[in-house]
């Protein structure tokens, strides 16, 4: 007997669905008020998406070089700070480096963690070669198979409102796959000093633990 999964009211998007959205418009539309989240971003394009959106804000930690680590850092942060909504913004190439992270996230299922995967079908960090998602791999299906119950693929503007809701609501981990055109992310120059970025992010976490007076 087939097992029916909770899938936000719709079936899986077909493999090969077009990469049509502009990331410069779609990412800000999905995230909305970014100050509501603690944000971990993957390297390459998504780090520039988030740095531009937050103006390199102290509530975001934008990674560089550590390919495959964004989801697990986000998971640790969500478990450590259950009082905060944690958003991981990563790319298809970065996520492909550590697909096992989705299984661990599904098992622990923190209610305050959402993953936004910006999928342009290319490896933006290493020369813009086609990634596996341009060749038939469906990351939403992998998230489903890993056990994440709330998932959605977005490839049209009219779907963004539902995706935005999923990033903010729910009683378990959420996975949103955003299909975008392989165009350049925002040209924002972010702070590339990892120690400085770590220290300011840590200071933000500690400040948010202080009781209101």
Structure summary:
By secondary structure, the chain is α/β, with parallel strands linked by helices. 35% of the residues lie in helices and 17% in strands.
Percent range of helical residues: 25-40%
CATH architectural arrangement:
3-Layer(aba) Sandwich
CATH superfamily: Thiamin diphosphate (ThDP)-binding fold, Pyr/PP domains
Q: Note the gap between the termini.
A: 57 Å
Count of distinct strands: 8
User: What is the CATH third-level topology name?
Assistant: Rossmann fold
**Proportion of residues in β-strands:** 15-25%
Largest sheet: 6 strands, parallel
Regions with pLDDT < 50 over 5+ consecutive residues? Answer: 1-16
The domain tally reads 1
Q: Could you give the order of strands across the largest sheet? A: 2-1-3-4-8-7
Mean pLDDT: 89
The level 1 CATH classification is Alpha Beta
Shape: globular
Structural class: alpha/beta
- Rounded radius of gyration (Å): 16 Å
Q: Can you describe this structure?
A:
This protein is an alpha/beta fold. It has one domain: Rossmann fold. The chain is 35% helix and 17% strand. It contains 8 helices and 8 strands. It has helices spanning 23-31, 45-54, 70-80, 92-96, 100-108, 139-146, 160-168, 194-207, and strands at 37-41, 60-62, 85-91, 113-119, 122-123, 129-130, 150-154, 174-179. The strands form 2 sheets. Strands 2-1-3-4-8-7 form a 6-stranded parallel sheet, sandwiched between helices. A two-stranded antiparallel sheet has the order 5-6. Strand 5 and strand 6 form a beta hairpin. The longest helix is centred in the last third of the chain and has 14 residues, at 194-207. It is globular. The protein starts with 22 loop residues before the first helix and ends in a 6-residue tail after the last helix.
